[in-house]
Specification:
The complex is a heterodimer of chains A (about 110) and B (about 160). Chain A is an alpha/beta fold and about 110 residues long. Chain A has 5 helices and 5 strands; from the N terminus they run βαβαβααβαβ. The longest helix of chain A has 14 residues. In chain B, about 35% of the residues lie in helices and about 25% in strands. In chain B, β2, α2 and β3 form a beta-alpha-beta unit. The chains are: A alpha/beta (about 110), B alpha/beta (about 160).
């Protein structure tokens, strides 16, 4: 599994549990030596400020994380609220394009 | 091929799914967007300017959105490299197309290879149903299945 690329996309609201499932999978992938990238957009973005600690852990472990700026703006959130730089659909496209496997919680 | 399956009757979710379908093509990968289930009624835009604009743009890019039924959907999913199924957060028609298994919303289904797993909102999140009961699956084991699979991963 080492060196394989996993992309995870989350677009659903925090109440669904999809963010936690995505974080659990990303943590396991990082521990296994896989390259992990996560892209958040739409309803998922509003759930990110409450999960800053796990986001910071994943970033420290080398996980690539990006947040859709348009979704963040719609939710009234900025980079300081989320703890991540804002990106866009190009990040989404790049992560999925590079990935060996994609898991989409959409 | 990256396949975006829109399977929601909610205009906001459909609009976001179409935005994702447009965005995923930015790196030159082939992308197909299909409407199924409750989303089929949005094929003409349904008087939502966001949806109408996205449908028009996708068509102008040579990637017109198609309406597919469950029978077509399973084949398209199998031929895709990656799949995003956009739902309203609950179980989708795509899940029904991929499985005969009974489901209780809002439990999600994750299809990897020939196996179908459940994703629950609370721990243990990843479970395999056998003999009428759900057994927990470690995230590391699930990851191994995902990375070893030779087909797309479908969460629906």
């Amino acid at each position: 599994m080492r060196g394989r690329r996993l992309a995870i996309v989350v677009s659903t609201a925090g109440e669904t549990g999809d963010l936690e499932a995505a974080f659990e999978l990303a943590g396991a992938a990082g521990a296994a030596g896989a390259y992990v990238s996560l892209f958040f957009m739409s309803d998922a973005v509003a759930g990110l400020p409450a999960r800053r600690a796990v986001i910071a852990e994943l970033a420290d472990d080398g996980c690539e994380l990006a947040v859709c700026a348009a979704s963040a703006a719609a939710a009234g959130l900025g980079e300081d609220d989320i703890g991540l730089p804002l990106g866009g659909q190009d990040d989404h496209a790049a992560m999925v394009s590079r990935a060996d496997r994609v898991v989409a919680f959409t | 091929m990256i396949l975006v399956v829109v399977d929601s009757g909610d205009a906001d979710r459909v609009s976001e799914a179409l935005r994702a379908g447009l965005g995923l093509g930015l790196r030159g990968d082939p992308v197909a967007v299909v409407l199924t289930g409750a989303a089929a009624r949005f094929a003409g835009g349904a008087d939502d300017p966001r949806i109408e604009r996205a449908l028009r743009t996708l068509a102008e890019l040579g990637r017109p959105v198609e309406v597919v039924d469950h029978a077509d959907l399973a084949g398209r999913i199998q031929r895709a490299r990656a799949v995003e199924v956009w739902t309203s957060g609950g179980r989708s028609a795509a899940a029904a197309a991929m499985s005969e298994a009974a489901a209780t919303p809002p439990v999600r289904r994750l299809r990897v290879g020939g196996a179908e797993l459940e994703i629950w909102p609370e721990p243990p999140r990843f479970r395999r149903r056998a003999d009428g009961a759900s057994g927990a699956i470690d995230a590391a084991d699930l990851l191994a299945q995902i990375l070893a699979s030779d087909g797309p991963i479908v969460v629906s």
